[in-house]
Recover the amino acids of this structure.
């Protein structure tokens, strides 16, 4: 068997996706003029699939901070954090994150993916155990694999199943890292985090929360699901990203219970990759201030979520979860999902097309993500786009129902 | 420890329900190449077996499992 057979297999997979008749691997956004509008295939569209929850990519203060930083510090650091890549801005961002989150320390990474891979593969090692939610993000699986620990899965968002699997581990729970996410990116469902905390504590294991998707949008001050539930002190470790609510790129690893700072010299994904560019750090710091004072943005975001969820439910779409900034419509097949995606694009609405194996349970989805920056008019246009899908693809009105009630 | 035969039988029953259209497939069947399971399907099969026999099967070992017989032997050692 030749090494290059893998290329053939990858090409076959691309061909299969090509047969869906759309560019399923990801449309190219030619121009973005704002947080909510862009041009795809020459057509102006509303961006409703960009995880830009607070719309901060075009916040004037964030843009100005980035522009000033690039003029002052240049376009890149040309080095890793442990070599020449730590600027005052990196250290300041980590201090500000620690203060905002109330953590003992925080480490900034170049991407959220790298934060998960680095933190998880360093916290756990050979002889340890990682217990992860079955629907975990690829970066969590990769970090777990790289750690050399034994890896077990528990059923998605199921504290009773976690309880059962931790019981089977017995004394090894003291060497076990349990990993859950707050808001799951494909279906938009929220973890029963308080129940997970109780189970993990009872078994004497440790809990790492990947807060990529609830950071900035949940909790009174935007510190995420754990703040909303009043259980931040129960979480051992938290990772997150700058590329959703904060509108830039990067990630972090922090803890209220343990000082993670000494791990800097152990985390290979931190030591051996280039640090974030000064402009990215500057806009992230400006965005963090906006998040902390972002109650109005969060209120607007959740109003938009409620409206779209209600609109799509009344059109007969089966939705993945209760209202959240990720609203996934469950389609019957990859072909139907691709056709629906194209109808939406033609109607001037860009969402994410997700086909197997991209989503849990081999589902085919239209994944819409909403922003506080979407205007009422844009929200209505998004719903109208889905109305066009319903008209074109559903032979008869579907019974209004959601998968999770 | 449960018997090898009991373990094979349980896997065959689970596969008959999910992938083999109700028929019992031989223990030498390759889960992916012959029965067409995706890696996610294999993980779900293992979760069901973990619950059936109250054992913990690390997913790191998935790569060592090709056939029903491989899986049965490994599950057997965990009981």
């Amino acid at each position: 068997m030749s090494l290059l057979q893998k290329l053939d297999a990858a090409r076959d997979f691309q061909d299969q996706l090509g047969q869906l008749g759309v560019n399923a691997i990801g449309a190219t956004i030619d121009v973005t003029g704002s947080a909510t509008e862009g041009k795809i295939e020459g057509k102006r569209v509303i961006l409703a699939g960009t995880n830009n929850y607070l719309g901060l990519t075009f916040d004037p203060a964030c843009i100005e901070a980035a522009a000033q930083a690039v003029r002052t510090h240049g376009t890149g650091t040309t080095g890793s954090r442990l070599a020449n890549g730590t600027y005052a801005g990196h250290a300041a961002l980590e201090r500000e994150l620690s203060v905002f989150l109330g953590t003992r320390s925080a480490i900034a990474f170049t991407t959220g993916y790298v934060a998960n891979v680095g933190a998880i593969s360093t916290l756990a090692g050979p002889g340890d155990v990682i217990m992860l939610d079955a629907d975990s993000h690829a970066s969590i699986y990769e970090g777990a694999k790289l750690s050399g620990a034994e890896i077990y899965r528990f059923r998605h968002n199921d504290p009773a199943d976690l309880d059962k699997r931790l019981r089977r581990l017995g004394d090894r729970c003291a060497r076990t890292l349990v990993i859950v996410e707050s808001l799951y990116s494909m279906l938009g469902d929220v973890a029963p985090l308080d129940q997970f905390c109780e189970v993990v504590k009872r078994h004497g294991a440790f809990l790492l929360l990947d807060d990529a998707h609830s950071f900035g949008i949940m909790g009174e001050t935007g510190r995420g699901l754990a703040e909303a539930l009043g259980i931040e002190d129960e979480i051992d470790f938290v990772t997150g990203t700058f590329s959703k609510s904060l509108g830039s790129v990067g990630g972090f690893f922090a803890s209220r219970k343990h000082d993670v700072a000494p791990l800097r010299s152990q985390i290979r994904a931190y030591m051996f990759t280039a640090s974030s560019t000064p402009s990215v750090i500057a806009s992230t710091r400006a965005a963090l201030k906006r998040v902390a004072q972002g109650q109005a943005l969060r209120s607007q975001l959740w109003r938009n979520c409620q409206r779209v969820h209600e609109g799509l439910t009344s059109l007969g779409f089966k939705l993945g979860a209760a209202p959240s900034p990720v609203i996934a419509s469950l389609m019957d097949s990859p072909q139907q999902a691709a056709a629906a995606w194209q109808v939406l694009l033609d109607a001037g609405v860009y969402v994410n097309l997700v086909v197997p194996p991209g989503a849990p349970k081999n589902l085919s989805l239209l994944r819409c993500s909403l922003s506080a920056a979407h205007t009422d008019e844009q929200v209505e246009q998004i719903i109208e786009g889905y109305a066009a899908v319903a008209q074109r693809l559903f032979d008869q009105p579907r019974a209004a129902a959601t998968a999770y009630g | 420890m449960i018997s090898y035969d009991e373990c094979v039988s349980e896997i065959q029953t689970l596969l008959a329900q999910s992938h083999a259209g109700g028929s019992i497939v031989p223990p030498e069947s390759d889960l992916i190449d012959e029965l067409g399971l995706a890696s996610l399907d294999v993980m779900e099969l293992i979760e069901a077996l973990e619950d059936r026999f109250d054992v913990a099967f690390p997913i790191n070992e998935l790569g060592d499992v090709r056939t029903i017989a491989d899986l049965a032997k490994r599950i057997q050692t965990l009981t």
The mean pLDDT of chain A is 94. The longest helix of chain A spans residues 295-314.
